[in-house]
Amino acid sequence: MLDSFRDTFRLPDLKRRILFTLAALFVYRLGAHVPTPGVDAAALGKLFDQGTLLGFLDLFAGGALSRFSIFALGVTPYINSSIVMQLLAVVMPSLEKMQKEGEEGRKKIVQWTRYGTIAFALIQAVGMTGWLKGLGIYSGGVLDIILVSLTLTTGAVAVMWLGEIMSDHGIGNGISLLIFAGIVVRIPEAIVRTASLVRLGEMNVLVLLLAVVIMVAVVAGCVLLQEGQRRLPVQYAKRMIGNKMYGGQSSFIPLRVNTAGVIPIIFASSILLFPYTIAGLFQHGIARAIQQAMSPSSPIYMILYVLLIIFFSYFYTAVVFKPEDISTNMKKNGGFILGIRPGKPTTDYIEKVMGRITLGGSIALAVIAIVPTLMTGLMNINTFYFGGTAVIIVVGVALDTVHQIEGQLLMRHYEGIIKRRGGKGGSLLKL
Q1: Same-domain status, 142 and 19
Q2: What is the pLDDT of residue 422?
Q3: Phi (first) and psi of residue 281, to 5 degrees
Q4: Where are its TM segments located (predicted)?
Q5: Considering the domain boundaries, does residue 424 fall inside one?
Q6: CATH no. for residue 27?
Q7: pTM for the whole thing?
């Protein structure tokens, strides 16, 4: 495995991409520590120490929100805009047609997504600034509020730009890597705080050991969920081309259990966090009721969270997985699934199997997202945030990045980082 990591720096192009990604992450972390002027940092810190939904919001911002830095909004506006555009593409035939037009159509959709990001960022920036002013943490006037709102909006656009150039010139999905960096950067501090409480006797060692065991089990479950697949056996008919016989071999179609990856988690979290931000614009009873209902520990939040994860699992799978294309390609190459006629019956069969797999995968994804939150609440562990959302994102992004590095290595005849061993039923990982 160490040899494989060493090989990644032997290839100039891959080395350049990795170094570019690290440099972009450094810029992102640097911006997360540049404070917005006019905010009472001490009062803001006390507010976040209360363990409300703000801590959950701050998790995705990588600590930028608790500092109210120029990157306080993080990637949330971009994700919200992406969700809206993907939903509109489903209900609006013109947008769906534009997606199929090729590069030009995709460029237009990307541009509209950017405009949507600016709109969402401006709304959230005004809402957050007005909410902080209502709490007495921010004491600026109208012009100051406008200045801070524009600063936060500009920061959100800069984060979007960083994510896009990381996707184009780096390794992995840029937006996902920014979320990943914001989560893992807090691990060292959490370890130090936990160790201090154990040393002072304020935390039970047995409880901590039990929590560690559950964490390992949850991470293992995330890896199995991300890597698990159902393999449909495909037989190719023999064909005579010229004087040579082609085909006749067996293959399979790998159907991933979790085709959508971490997208359902990110989308569901972003949608549930948006009402909380909007409620910050107002200070009457209804707004406070919404804020309480959107707390991660509330039953309403958990039920909505599970339902949205299942919905987006199906939605995103339908967007990226096209059974018709698979069936058409199989028919052109003389391939067929044993016992299933080529053409529409094959398409219907793949859709049916994929629907069952997606149901199981989405439920497992929702369970993994909820269980760690319940566990840390019951064990009263507050030195670090171990939520299923964070775990699934970290594991999913890490595996996706490793697979992309693997692909670059294998194209150049280097051995991959992860070795696979498996039979019919799926795959086993050997690190």
Answers
A1: yes
A2: 46
A3: -70, -20
A4: 65-91, 112-131, 137-162, 174-191, 203-225, 260-282, 302-321, 357-378, 384-402
A5: yes
A6: 1.10.3370.10
A7: 0.72
